[in-house]
Each structure stands twice: as structure tokens, then as C-alpha cells.
Design brief:
The termini are close together. The chain is built from 8 helices and 15 strands. The longest helix has 19 residues. The protein has a 9-stranded mixed beta sheet with strand order 6-4-1-10-11-12-13-14-15, with helices on both faces. It has about 300 residues and is of the alpha/beta class.
Length: about 300
């Protein structure tokens, strides 16, 4: 596939990640699930474009500068004088597992609007990626639906990583309904085991993937943490690929790294055509996710992307 680029839509955050399991001191980092994906895509050497809403205060300048350092193209983003960047406080337990402790959002209605989404943003791109972070607010949801429609008009693949954060939704059932309504429009889906069971209202991955079949999505991926990940292309045989064995320090951002690797492979090579290619895609995605988990923060500095040759 030609080097067109991947366009992402989402919110940019500042992550305050606890330095220890005492959760009384924090590091300040660029954050947001969709931001993490866009950054990893850029680190693979693929043109990475991002649509978000930024302000003019110091936090917005920090976010913009950090994204520009990562060579993220923000030309399609919008800015207002009133927008303030949200802060996310991430606590760690004794095992390095992340816990989204709380959000601080002083401008909850300052979101990307339907009128902010322009058709030219989707030209000469191969994939449009989004998550549920732009679905819980009705105006952001309308903007996301417009983006999906324009992306389809341009022939882009639609990629969705649920990244469900229930604290941002009014009700669990609203979250399920909104996401399930969009699934038939998705070409590449990633869910965690917990998200799959939540959305499909089932107890096991097997039951959940049976339910997913009703939505007729071409490429489905379910991450299983330390057990690896499962992939299924169309109605072909499911493929389970074990995870990399590593000493986990912080799992924050591992799933985003996994998704970025999958999208990067699809951008460069298209969908996998054989079981062996599927194993290769997922194996390298598992590897990048594991690399991230060995370091603090959702976007640690990694020097060995060359080991994940596309």
C-alpha cells in the first residue's frame, strides 16, 4: 500500500502518571489513547495526521510542542481561546497495573464539532482511526460520524479501538448502544477482553467473538493481556498469538502501541492474506505492546522500532 498516511481523531490529554505505588508524586506526559496511537504510527515512519481541539494556554502549548516533536501533523486541528486541556491522573498498584483515578476537564463542552471536520482532511490517506473518547459527548459524536462518512467517501479503511472509560459516560447502557451502532461501519476493530465482554454482555471471549460476527467487520482483534491476542479476518479461522514474556513496569499505553503496530502493518501491506501473515502482524503488535509495558508512562522513549520492521 502506498505511503499515504493515517488520520486519527481524538482528545489530547496530559497524563500525570504516579512514580510509585504510593501515588503521591507524578510525572507529566503527553497522553490520550488516540495520541499514543498517532505517535507510534509516526515513529514507524508513516505520515501521521491528527484532528483535535487545542487551546492557547500553557498546557495546550505543551501538548502541541510534544506532538510536533513526534512529527504529528496538526494542520487539521482546531484552536479556541477557551479550550483547556484535560488532565488524567493514573495511579499504579504494586504490580504495575494502571488505574485511571480521575479526570480533570474544565471545558467539557469544548470538543471537535461537526463543522470542524473538513473533507480535504481525508484526501490522500489510507486509514481513519478513532476511539470512544469522541463518542460520549453528543457534539463530538456527531463530528465522529461525519468523519467516518467522509472517510468512507474517500475509500479509507475505518479503524476503531474502543478504549472504554466508563467514568466519562453517563450510563453503561448508553456506552454500549453508541458503540454497537457504529460497529457495522468499522473495518478494523480492537477490543480488550474486558471491553468485548462488556459490549456483548457475555462472560467469555468465545461468546463475545460469536456475537461480533453479527456486525460483519472484516478484521477483529481482541487483546488478552499477558495471554497475548486473538485475531480474526472475515470469517476465517481465529488466530491466537501468545504475548511476549517481559517484566511489567507499567501497562499504560500497551494496547495503544498494539493498535498502532497493527494499523502500520495494514497501511504498508494491507490486510494479512494468510495465517502466517496474521501471526506476524499480531506477534509484532504484541512485541511493541510488551516493550511499552517495561517502561513508565504511556509513551516511553523506545530505540528499537527497527526490530519491528514493517
Amino acid at each position: 500500500m502506498a505511503q499515504k498516511g493515517i488520520l486519527s481523531l481524538g482528545d489530547a490529554f496530559i497524563d500525570f502518571v504516579s512514580r510509585t505505588s504510593d501515588n503521591n508524586s507524578f510525572d507529566r506526559n503527553l497522553g490520550g489513547a488516540s495520541v499514543n496511537v498517532a505517535v507510534h504510527i509516526s515513529r514507524f515512519g508513516i505520515p501521521s495526521f491528527y484532528i483535535t481541539k487545542l487551546g492557547i494556554e500553557e498546557d495546550s502549548k505543551f501538548v502541541e510542542e510534544e506532538m510536533q516533536k513526534e512529527q504529528i501533523n496538526l494542520d487539521d486541528s482546531v484552536r479556541t481561546s477557551t479550550k483547556k486541556i484535560s488532565n488524567v491522573f493514573v495511579h499504579l498498584d504494586a504490580f504495575g497495573e494502571r488505574h485511571f483515578h480521575n479526570y480533570e476537564n474544565e471545558t467539557p463542552d469544548e470538543v471537535v464539532l461537526e463543522t470542524d471536520i473538513k473533507g480535504e482532511s481525508f484526501e490522500n490517506k489510507s486509514i481513519f482511526y478513532f476511539g470512544s473518547g469522541t463518542l460520549f459527548h453528543p457534539h463530538a459524536r456527531a463530528a465522529t460520524k461525519k468523519a467516518i462518512s467522509l472517510a468512507k467517501e474517500e475509500g479509507l479503511l475505518i479503524a476503531f479501538d474502543a478504549n472504554i472509560r466508563l467514568k466519562r459516560w453517563n450510563r453503561e447502557e448508553e456506552c454500549r448502544q453508541v458503540i454497537r451502532e457504529l460497529l457495522p461501519l468499522v473495518d478494523v476493530l480492537k477490543l480488550s477482553e474486558e471491553e468485548l465482554c462488556f459490549l456483548m454482555e457475555v462472560d467469555t471471549v468465545e461468546q463475545g467473538m460469536e456475537q461480533l460476527a453479527n456486525f460483519h467487520m472484516p478484521f477483529q482483534l481482541v487483546t488478552l493481556g499477558e495471554k497475548g491476542a486473538i485475531g480474526q479476518l472475515f470469517d476465517q479461522e481465529k488466530v491466537h498469538v501468545p504475548a511476549e514474556a517481559v517484566k511489567v513496569l507499567d501497562t499504560n499505553g500497551s494496547g495503544d502501541a498494539f493498535m498502532a503496530a497493527i494499523l502500520s502493518y495494514i497501511h504498508e501491506k494491507g490486510f494479512p492474506h494468510t495465517k502466517e501473515e496474521m501471526v506476524n502482524y499480531i506477534g509484532h503488535a504484541n512485541k511493541l505492546g510488551a516493550m511499552v509495558a517495561t517502561k513508565k508512562g504511556s509513551l516511553p522513549t523506545l530505540y528499537n522500532y527497527q526490530t519491528l520492521v514493517l
